Amino acid sequence: MRRVYTKKSMTEYDPRLVAPTCLYLASKAEESTVQARLLVFYIKKLYADEKYRYEIKDILEMEMKVLEALNYYLVVYHPYRSLSPLLQDAGLNDLNMTQLTWGLVNDTYKMDLILVHPPHLIALACIYIASVLRDKDTTAWFEELRVDMNVVKNISMEILDFYESHRMFTEERINAALQKLTLRP
């Protein structure tokens, strides 16, 4: 669904129809098909609101629009595939570094990075962040790779900006909750 909206506007494609259509399409891509009629049945059962009253033909029509928006390309490569070999090549495959970089990669799925950047560069950015956090000198290794370090650093900054904004959001919510608690008699 996120990939669709990197190409199309939410005003053009209604998210209330795109979401179940993407679920339907994903189930087909993973070869565990959910029938469109069952999807429509459960949507109607869950939502009494008229905004969610879609028929099978609506989902099937949207399926074609979603496929066109994605250029019929449903495969998404993930940073996990390249992460382990890269860590091993860098000599950073101890449990501590592996867990840290794996966690960083997990968190990148909360952003749109996977839709914008190649997966190996995301893995490299996570390794870069982890090596800085653990004071591991990987400069020579990154130079051997002959990758554009500006891109790796930009991806790293996007990840760190996400953490910063998420931390600020969490702190604001905690402070607001504490404020409400102190105002009660």
UniProtKB/TrEMBL annotation:
It comes from the Eukaryota. One of its GO terms (molecular function) is cyclin-dependent protein serine/threonine kinase regulator activity. Residues 1-68, 81-161 form the Cyclin-like domain. One of its GO terms (biological process) is cell division. The keyword Cell cycle applies. Keywords: Cell cycle, Cell division, Cyclin. InterPro entries: Cyclin-like_dom, Cyclin-like_sf, Cyclin/Ssn8, Cyclin_N. The keyword Magnesium does not apply. Belongs to the cyclin family. Interacts with the CDC2 protein kinase to form a serine/threonine kinase holoenzyme complex also known as maturation promoting factor (MPF). The cyclin subunit imparts substrate specificity to the complex. This is B-like cyclin. The lineage of its organism: Eukaryota, Viridiplantae, Streptophyta, Embryophyta, Tracheophyta. The gene is LOC106759473.
